[in-house]
Design a protein that fits this description.
The chain is of the alpha/beta class. The chain has eight helices and eight strands. It has a single domain, classed as FMN-linked oxidoreductases (TIM Barrel, Alpha-Beta Barrel). One of its GO terms (molecular function) is heptaprenylglyceryl phosphate synthase activity.
Amino acid sequence: MPKAFAWSKWRTIAKLDPEKTLENTKLHRLVKSPVLDAIVVGGTQGITYTNTSQLIKQIKEAGYRGPLLQEVSSLESITPEADYYFIPLVLNAGNLEWMRDAHLRALKSFGHLIDWSRVAVEGYLVFNPYSAVAELTSAVVPEKEDVLAYLDYAENILHLPIFYIEFSGSFADMELLEAVGQRRRRIHLVYGGGVRQARQVAQVLQYVDTVVIGNGLYEGNDILKDVFQC
């Protein structure tokens, strides 16, 4: 395991879903990418300890030696096999289960066992109302004028390290990302959603610190050549 949890230095992350199947040939190509900074394992639906553990094992067997993380979506799915952990708080969740309650239950049971040097908390802002995460969390999709208020809430009231702009398969309005990028002071900006081409990566990275690429990996080989250069 790498000595330091250097998430603030990562620019390009691949996110793999334990409920989906990525062909072994694609996975072997992905782990050799010269631009891949980390792999995150996580998803919204059907996530279990078994399929999470199996996917992490598959990634390691493919030869990946970089940072390997689990984005925790349920207490039951947590596996000790990950190097590090992202804990999402869905800031615009209509159901407090995903902003507070599940986290408190986990801390009550296991807080004394957590190595916090291996954990980073993400303030999620969900934009796609038709996405699985929006449906699960009953997310109230923000109006454009609300986004900067959420950013200030995450950065200056909650003092979160990461603000995650989640478009879940759709691609963001660059004016929105530019406004967020100009407003933030210290918080690390992460973007995920609809990135399938290298030009989109370049667009997004003008305004945020890290881009996460997930669904596109399951749709064809072009993204491996174009985005991940492998």
